[in-house]
Design a protein that fits this description.
single chain, 2 domains
């Protein structure tokens, strides 16, 4: 029996028309590229390059511009380590134009060889463009002499057999006083007298190791006035001062309260007279006990080169630095007196006080002299850069009162620039400015020793070379890298003596 298959019955109802196939929407590349097979999606999204310019230059690029996170006021020092934005900073512009600091001064700290002087040289170069004159009062290496010479400035040399500086010479104050009248003239003469008194007292205290007593300073002041009456400005030297003390004129005896008693006069004067004679005949006499052969003029940038002094001669180095600082500030005071009288154009100066630790360690009482110089920089119309290695240099002073005064240098500075520093320096710095954990790590990492480059068989540059952290109070620090141009490298080659080798 066979069974046949039959086709299924078809429905007579019409079928609905077939819809066309819908296209799937195409996916965009997204922020990291095309996904999927054959795509180019990246796992790391690099930041685009950023450039900084004035509103005049980038006005046509709006709205593809954003505000800057670091100030654009002052000398361009380098690039921000993370954003690569240009970092501008110097104490004068940050004080006068930006209002970012309350005092036109900066304290630069860092281990040797990491570029502290290089950074300050960049400030000098940029401030010269702004019209400010840089004055380096004591260049020990030298780091600034060739730069100042390239700027058309004056470079004078001091040291054994390389020039003398008469500490009794009023210098520019006399020339300026002759052009003034009335109260302005009297004030400048009184300022000059005080500066010479402080300088002689500081040198005598440095040489003997003990500062002058108050009665000795009074006798010294009276003797200087007698010298001014007897000699033309700049002619009297320390041996003439000894002669006045030996003779004992009435103006000097009156201060000692000797009352015509020669023995009382000799008891009051002999210790200081012996100290001044030792200053004339000792190791410092060759530099300070003769008439001035170098002129400190501020008609152009100035550098006083004292690199000829041996580093082992610490007493002479400290004495010359102290004398240079006193003479420099005296010349600035004379210039300001003339500008206030309308006889000279108004001008501001950038003072560089390098190797600060050498003077502070030289003897007791010298901190007071430096403290007096650095307190009035805002009123004197000068910006200032204090350069030393660490705050430990200031805390290493034997006298506790000197330590507290020296720490005041850091506290009064408008801001602090830190290079590579050891970890034990962070607690000292934290007393002055606050550091985050990341900032502490940066500073200590920069102090790491350099590694050995196997390809060149030479020591690689230190990791902290040219890297600094700018700290203003409690604000976040600005890390930057200062890279020198070829022209700067030529002027700032500290290894020229090894060039032939």
């Amino acid at each position: 029996m066979s069974r046949s298959r039959q086709a299924p019955a078809q429905s007579s109802a019409p079928r609905p028309p077939k819809r066309p196939a819908e296209r799937r929407p195409e996916r965009g590349p997204g922020a990291r590229g095309w996904p999927g097979a054959g795509g180019g999606k990246t796992s790391l999204l690099e930041a685009p390059p950023e450039f900084r310019a004035t509103t005049v230059q980038v006005c046509g690029l709006w709205p593809w511009i954003v505000g800057s996170g670091v100030p654009l006021v002052g000398v361009p020092l380098g690039r921000h380590l993370f954003s690569r934005a240009t970092v501008c900073s110097d104490p004068i512009n940050w004080f006068s134009r930006g209002g970012l600091i309350a005092n036109p001064s900066v304290l630069v700290l860092g281990r040797p060889g990491l570029g502290k002087s290089t950074l300050v040289c960049r400030m000098c170069l940029g401030l010269d463009y702004y019209g400010y004159r840089s004055v380096v009062l004591g260049d020990l290496k030298p780091d600034y002499a060739e730069l100042i010479a390239a700027l058309g400035g004056n470079v004078v040399t001091l040291g054994r057999g390389h020039g003398t500086l008469n500490v009794l010479d009023p210098g520019a104050a006399v020339t300026a006083a002759n052009r003034l009248t009335g109260r302005a003239r009297a004030e400048l003469i009184a300022d000059s007298h005080g500066r010479r008194l402080n300088l002689v007292a500081a040198l005598v205290g440095l040489n003997r190791g003990v500062p002058l007593a108050d009665t000795e300073e009074a006798v010294l002041s009276a003797a200087l006035r007698v010298l001014d009456d007897r000699h033309e400005p700049g002619e009297a030297v320390l041996t003439d001062l000894v002669q006045v003390l030996e003779e004992g004129p009435e103006a000097v005896r009156r201060v000692t309260l000797s009352r015509s008693d020669d023995q009382r006069y000799r008891d009051a004067v002999d210790p200081m007279e012996l100290s001044i004679m030792a200053l004339c005949e000792g190791g410092l006499g060759e530099t300070f006990a003769q008439r001035t052969t170098v002129k400190i003029a501020l008609d152009a940038p100035l550098c006083i080169n004292i690199s000829q002094i041996n580093e082992a001669d610490e007493k002479l180095q400290a004495a010359v630095l102290l004398a240079c600082w006193g003479e420099g500030f005296g010349a600035i005071a004379a210039q300001h007196a003339l500008s206030d009288a309308g006889l000279e154009p108004k001008r501001n100066y950038f003072i560089v006080l390098d190797e600060l630790w050498r003077v502070l360690r030289a003897g007791k009482g010298l901190v007071d002299r430096v403290d007096a110089l650095t307190r009035l920089n805002r009123q004197a119309g000068v910006g200032m850069a204090l350069v030393t290695h660490t705050l430990a240099d200031l805390e290493a002073l034997p006298d506790q009162s000197d330590q507290l005064k020296a720490m005041g240098f850091a506290e009064r500075s408008g801001y602090i620039v830190c290079g590579g520093l050891p970890a034990k320096e962070i607690p000292r710095l934290s007393k002055v400015v606050h550091f985050s954990q990341r900032e502490e790590q940066l500073i200590t990492d920069w102090a790491s020793p350099p590694s050995w480059d196997p390809e060149s068989n030479k020591e690689a540059p230190p990791p902290g070379l040219g890297k600094f952290l700018v700290k203003v109070g409690g604000r976040p620090g600005i890390p930057l890298e200062c890279v020198m141009t070829p022209a700067e490298l030529e002027l700032h080659d500290t290894n020229k003596r090894w060039a032939r080798a």
